[in-house]
Amino acid sequence: MKSPENILTESALLYDSVKLLATALQDLDQSQSITMPSISCQTESQWQFGSSLMNYMRPITFRGLTGLVDFDQFGHRSSFTLDVMTITDNGLQKIGYWSGSQPSQPLNISEEWRDNYSIMSLANQTLTVTTIINAPYCMLKDSSATKVGNDRFEGYIVDVIDELSKMLGFKYKFKLVDDNAYGVKNESGYWNGLIGEIINGKADIAIVDLTITSKRAEAVDFTLPFMNTGISILFKKPTTKVTTLFSFLSPFSNVVWVYVLAAYVGVSSILFIVGRLSPYEWDNPHPCRQEDFVLENNFSLTNSFFFTIGSLMQQGSDLTPKAMSTRAIAGIWYFFTLIMISSYTANLAAFLTVEKVIYPIESADELSLQSTIEYGCLASGSTKSFFQDSNITTFKRMWNFMKNRDVFMSKNDEGKKRVQKGNYAYLMESASIEYIVERNCNLTQIGGLLDTKGYGIATKKNSRHRNLLSQSILKLQETGRLHMLKEKWWKQKKGGGQCAEDSKKSSSVTALKIDNVGGVFVVLLGGLSLAFFVAICEFMWKSRKSTTGCETMCEEMINDLKFSFACQSKSKPGRKKTYQTNVNNSSNYNSLSQPQIIRAQHFNKIDY
Ligand code: ASP
């Protein structure tokens, strides 16, 4: 049989109702005989014994399954009590009761549970808030000596707690942590610092840049994070200028230098070819000695290379192009030179004036692989625990380096000062690094984040404050208030924004890449193609003038081309003369008379 605790409320009520009805019917039946006529559902007919039965029911009192059953004058149940239950880790638990005989009275909740359940649990309470002096979270005001209480403090968390107190209606009293530690667990299992003070009951909540970690969360409760962060490296910017023997190469990227070299070789070769191809580049060097009929070309291979390097170096040369095609090449090369030299000069000036900083370390990995630069972190914080407990090789190596050295600091400020002295890298959380590098332009953050975590407010284990504070933090986040406070304390107050100019300057000088100067190369290619086309036109035009028929012109062209490409001599026999003296034999060089060839060879020897 089921015990009363296991019967459903409806069943118990039904049981008591049937019992009540049976008792009333019995009583009524004893005083008069009851009949049960059929009643129509359509008409409003009533059972004649209904009101008598009600009158018999009202005075009945008995202890049923649902407690004492009795009724007031209106027929409502009175003299009953409802238990108020809650679900706990151990199942349902009675936390109070409500009396049906005094419906106007509030719920009677036991003392222990009243505090926990009341939404007003924070209202009008005064919380002791433990914290640490660490800029910009909590700082002593310049005039703190003349002030007392909370008025001595200012900073990000001072504003945050103030916002929370307004939202939840509590008062607060700041207390600086006794041992200046955030909280680590010692070998005997005791927590020091802020965490220790919460556990010992010295404070109700702890708020500063207090990192949420799994170990700490076993000892205290944390609200949702109000700021996200991660470990990074604070390091001093090298002050000496980087001077390298080959810093004159810095204005252009390596690719651009290769392109310039290729352009130089390409243009010189094309100048040589076009020079040979164009008949207007071939001249009689001795116009008065017409009988020599030997033509000379200034643009030998070496001369072509000398001409282009001369103009590239802005020095010029004695060589002057005479044909339209070679002049076109010279023109486009001068244009190319103008743009490249101007870009080079401008960028070189920038490179020489702007300090380019090269860091001896670029990441945590590089830091861990060397031992000349010392590194450390805060002595009693989550950063130290991170390295101590890490299983990652780099971080293990770093911990082995740090653990036996004097590299741990009692305050972040001490770490910053040691970094400023040089040859020391300080491992700290990025939010604090952000604040420091905003004001100390000789310091910087090296590499990215080694982990990701957040700062939360610590409360006692199972404290109901946690949920209320978490909800309010979410609200502050959603309304953008937390962001505004961060901007205020990081970028504006206490000398924020000092290094903004510096970071702009250092990032503005970079070597010119092919994307920056690619257009000049395109123009150069276009100019060269045009020059080549002009050279072919010139060649055909001259050949057409100096020959009689199509066949002979073609032969002329082929012979001239063969000569142009096969022979590097800068002289050749004059074709027109040949044509005139050997009018029957066409203008083929093969048909030159012996003295003419000797003369041509003589020139070859001299000028090759
Ligand atoms: N915020 C850290 C902490 O809560 C301090 C640190 O180790 O950098 O322990």
Automatic annotation (TrEMBL):
Residues 126-493 form the Solute-binding protein family 3/N-terminal domain. Its main location: membrane. One of its GO terms (biological process) is cell surface receptor signaling pathway. Gene3D superfamilies: 1.10.287.70, 3.40.50.2300, Periplasmic binding protein-like II. The keyword Nucleotide-binding does not apply. It is a multi-pass membrane protein. Keywords: Cell membrane, Disulfide bond, Glycoprotein, Ion channel, Ion transport, Ligand-gated ion channel, Membrane, Postsynaptic cell membrane, Receptor, Signal, Synapse, Transmembrane, Transmembrane helix, Transport. The record marks 361 as: Crucial to convey clamshell closure to channel opening. It holds the Pfam family ANF_receptor. The record marks 475 as: Interaction with the cone snail toxin Con-ikot-ikot. Belongs to the glutamate-gated ion channel (TC 1.A.10.1) family. This is Uncharacterized protein. It comes from Medioppia subpectinata.
